[in-house]
Amino acid sequence: MFRRLLIPLLLVLILGTAPASAATTNWGAPGPYATAVEIGAVNTLYYPRDIAGSDRRHPVIVWGNGTGGAPLVYRDLLLQWASHGFIVSAANTPMSNLGISMRAGIDALAQRDADPSSVFHRKVDLTRIGASGHSQGGAAAIVVGADSRVDTILPIQPGPLADIDDVHGPAFLMAGQRDSIVWPALVKAFYNAADHIPAIYGEVRGADHFTVVGDPGPFAAPTTAWWRFQLMDDLQARALFYGPNCGICVDSVTWSDVRRNARVPR
């Protein structure tokens, strides 16, 4: 009798204390940080509001807009990342392909991190930097990925004017199944060329070229998880991308096509 009671009790204890899996974590939900926005001449910053009192340094994401776009167009997505503890430096330029303003954003944050009068003083983690962007800005993220300071890239529906051969860190390349401006085949071409780095191709089911604009919808969760994994070493987020049964690999509701190259740990 005792043994029959003990086994269910142990199962309850084990299951009750097991960590949540990446598949059940709502990465699209806002993070624990209230956010703030600072509009500058070259870049707009999205960051944790109380960063001056933070007890840690915060990783950086540099962002490039699509052609003719501005950071305001992607405000919801950038604030989502900031709410998870990232400092997002978004280039104000509508022509971001060369990545000049994105690199300038890194330089500016390095200066402010060193400035005792800045709220960012000793709060910027310049050893953890990612690059992202949409359309032309996605191509810019690939261009900036060649910078030795950039650890990982996340191009969203990237335009063609970039060379991924120069990127040195892991890449998560996102396409839209119904994108008629940047066809999925163009994003797959970048993925196929990225055989020298860990690279993942994710095609969002039903997404067109402008699904990420405004409310980022299905782009919010996987992008947040990628940054949490790559720039914060979040193991739950890692399981969404790496391992034998990765979260995006088995999620046919969100994804119409997922590919991982041989350099991605299985």
From TrEMBL:
TM segment ranges: none
Domain of life: Bacteria
InterPro entries: AB_hydrolase_fold (IPR029058), PET_hydrolase/cutinase-like (IPR041127)
Its EC number(s): 3.1.1.101
Keywords: Periplasm, Signal
Catalytic activity: a butanoate ester + H2O = an aliphatic alcohol + butanoate + H(+); (ethylene terephthalate)(n) + H2O = (ethylene terephthalate)(n-1) + 4-[(2-hydroxyethoxy)carbonyl]benzoate + H(+)
Keyword Signal on entry: yes
Pfam families in the record: PETase (PF12740)
Gene3D superfamilies assigned: alpha/beta hydrolase
Signal sequence segment: 1-22
This protein's record includes keyword Signal: yes
Cell location: Periplasm
Residues of the PET hydrolase/cutinase-like domain: 44-233
Protein name: poly(ethylene terephthalate) hydrolase
